[in-house]
Q: What sequence folds into this?
């Protein structure tokens, strides 16, 4: 896929074929949020007020975790302005929806709306893009990680899905805090601190055992559910200089009832084309994409995308390939030869020597820079 186009290019060609109602906010989405909020409150009350069998607590924890994740999906939609347009109400509702995931609305809009969406899969500017081979030598941690066997790295990566959203959100807070207007920073800090203060307060109220089932375990479950989607959004796609959603994004398919529960969060390519449109209407966008550019569109079942993530490394080489630097195993990315149904090596031996030479050169360069700095 050589001829890349911006999301605006695609949107301009799809928009005339869509009904005008799709560009209006859909307040009815809040009823789903209210249902999840009531489930959450009911779960807290049940755990806090009754001494029950731990297996019942465990079942409630899974319901709470699923509710936390779904509220996050709705919060994502709210903060894109597709549910309500009034700024203060949008931020208030977004803060409530993201409260279990402990992410403030101002940070989310800065990190996600204004940076990730504008610079999707850009090597330097997308805060959610995975590293390139050239960056490997500059990180001792990454060099250590890629000395481990791929199977171990894959297992650790999947286990870490249960904490990745929370950890990445904390990292984004520190990364972007300095970019906020000094007058707005106290509000950003407040949005970050208040959720954690409430959950720590719940710990003292419930005690450690009930708190584990009421918040900590649900948070891990919510992280895992959310990251199952997010990890497949772009990580199988290439790095792109032009923000082309049909090249750098992936839509996954799930059963219809799951789409209902998760506010159509699976329609990710569609979301990057029309981030200001309610996800309720993304099936209409999908129809138009598949009619106009069927050969460009990437979609696959969520389970298949997760299997592909398991089998491939998470390090970019030449923007269009995924590489395991110490074994020289090179895999294609979507649109450049990756077949999710039959994942196999693209190249190995000859490129391995080339990559190792580059890796050693980068590592020596970093060592020289460190010595000069001392």
A:
């Amino acid at each position: 896929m050589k001829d890349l186009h911006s999301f605006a290019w695609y949107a301009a060609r799809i928009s005339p074929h869509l009904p005008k109602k799709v560009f209006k906010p859909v307040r009815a989405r809040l009823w789903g949020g209210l249902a999840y909020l009531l489930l959450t409150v009911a779960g807290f009350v049940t755990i806090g007020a009754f001494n029950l069998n731990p297996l019942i607590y465990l079942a409630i924890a899974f319901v709470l975790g699923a509710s936390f994740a779904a509220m996050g999906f709705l919060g994502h939609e709210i903060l894109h302005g597709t549910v309500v347009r009034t700024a203060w109400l949008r931020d208030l509702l977004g803060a409530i929806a993201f409260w279990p995931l402990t992410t403030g609305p101002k940070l989310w809009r800065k990190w996600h709306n204004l940076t990730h969406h504008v610079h999707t899969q850009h090597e330097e500017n997308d805060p959610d893009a995975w590293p390139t081979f050239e960056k490997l030598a500059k990180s001792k941690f990454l060099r250590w990680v890629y000395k481990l066997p791929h199977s171990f790295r894959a297992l650790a990566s999947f286990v870490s899905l249960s904490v990745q959203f929370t950890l990445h959100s904390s990292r984004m807070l520190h990364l972007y805090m300095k970019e906020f207007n000094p007058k707005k920073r106290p509000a950003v800090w407040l949005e970050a601190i208040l959720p954690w203060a409430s959950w720590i307060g719940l710990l003292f109220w419930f005690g450690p055992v009930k708190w584990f089932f009421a918040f900590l375990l649900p948070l891990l479950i919510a992280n895992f559910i959310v990251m199952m989607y997010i990890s497949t959004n772009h990580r199988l796609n290439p790095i792109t200089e032009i923000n082309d959603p049909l090249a750098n994004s992936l839509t996954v398919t799930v059963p219809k009832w799951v789409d209902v529960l998760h506010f159509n969060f699976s329609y990710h390519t569609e979301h990057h084309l029309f981030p200001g449109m309610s996800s309720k209407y993304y099936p209409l966008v999908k129809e138009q994409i598949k009619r106009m550019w069927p050969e460009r569109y990437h979609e696959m079942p969520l389970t298949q995308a997760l299997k592909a993530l398991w089998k491939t490394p998470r390090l970019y080489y030449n923007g269009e390939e995924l590489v395991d630097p110490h074994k020289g195993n090179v895999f294609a990315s979507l649109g450049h030869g990756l077949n999710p149904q039959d994942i196999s090596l693209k190249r190995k031996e000859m490129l391995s020597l080339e990559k190792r030479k580059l890796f050693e050169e980068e590592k020596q360069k970093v060592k020289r820079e460190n010595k000069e700095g001392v």
In short: The two ends are 46 Å apart (CA to CA).
